[in-house]
Amino acid sequence: MKIATYNVNSVNARLPVLLRWLQESAPDVVCLQELKAIQENFPEEAIRNAGYTAIWHGQKSWNGVAILSRVGNITERCRVLPGDPEDLHSRYIEAVVNGVIIGCLYLPNGNPAPGPKFDYKLSWLKRFAIHAKALLTEELPVVLTGDFNIIPTGKDVYKPERWVDDALFRPESRAAFQELIAQGWTDAIRQLHPEETIYTYWDFFRNAFGRDAGLRIDHFLLSPQLVPQLQKAAVDKQVRGWEKTSDHAPVWIELKD
C-alpha cells in the first residue's frame, strides 16, 4: 500500500497540480493538509473522478485536512484532536483504511516565537503526544502523517544556523518530536534514509527551490506493527517545480500488503 502526504496550500487553487500528481504517482491513500476551503467547497467530484473517495474537515481561509483512498472504504474515527473542546482549528482527521489507522495532521506553525502562537503550537503538541501514546496502546498498525511544522535535526534544513529562533526549529519543538519517537514511533524517512539530505518544503521566495534551500517538515511516524512492512520512502520533489504548485512536495511510503 502506497500512502502519501501532501500539503497542497489551497486544494482548489492547486487542484490541477493535485490531479496531475494523483494520476502520475497513483498513491493508494493520500493525506492532504492546508485545504484552505470551507467544508462545502472541497472538490469532491473532481477527486471522485480521479478514482478516490474522501473524507475531509474544512475551515474558512486556512487549515483543513483530508484523507483520500482508492483501495478501500474510509472509516472515520475522529476529525478533531482530543483534549481541547474550544479548539476550532481543522488540523486533524483520523480514519481506518484497509486495516491501517491513519492520522492526518497539520501541526501549527507557531511563529513568531516566543508568543501566543508558539504557546498554541506547544499545547497542541502536548495533546497530540497524549493521543499518539493512546494509539500505541491499541497495538494496531498506525500511520501518523502530515505537515508537522517541525525540523527534527540540523540535517533536515539548509543552513540550520539561520533557523535557530524559528518556531519550527526551536529546542522545544524538536524535543517534542523526539518525545514522540521515544514513545515508540519510527520516522519512516530516516528509517530508510538515515543520512541523506531530504527536504519536503521550499519557500516561494529567494529561489529556494532552485538553490535546494529546503526543510524536511512533512513526516511519517509508524507504529511498531508497521515498521517491518516499510519498503520505500521518498519525496516527489519534481512536483515542487511544476507551475502554480504548492511550496511543499508530496511525500510517500510504501508498505507490504
Automatic annotation (TrEMBL):
One GO MF annotation is:
double-stranded DNA 3'-5' DNA exonuclease activity
Q: Which SUPFAM superfamilies match?
A: DNase I-like
Q: Which gene encodes it?
A: xth
Return the EC number: 3.1.11.2
The cofactors required by this protein are:
Mg(2+)
Q: Give UniProt keywords alphabetically.
A: Hydrolase, Magnesium, Metal-binding
NCBIfam families tied to this protein: exoDNase_III, xth
Write down the top EC class of this protein. hydrolase
The identity of this protein, by name, is Exodeoxyribonuclease III
Q: Which family does it belong to?
A: Belongs to the DNA repair enzymes AP/ExoA family.
Q: Which domain of life is it from?
A: Bacteria
Domain named Endonuclease/exonuclease/phosphatase is located at 4-248
InterPro entries tied to this protein:
AP_endonuc_1 (IPR004808), AP_endonuclease_F1_BS (IPR020847), Endo/exonu/phosph_ase_sf (IPR036691), Endo/exonuclease/phosphatase (IPR005135), ExoIII-like (IPR037493)
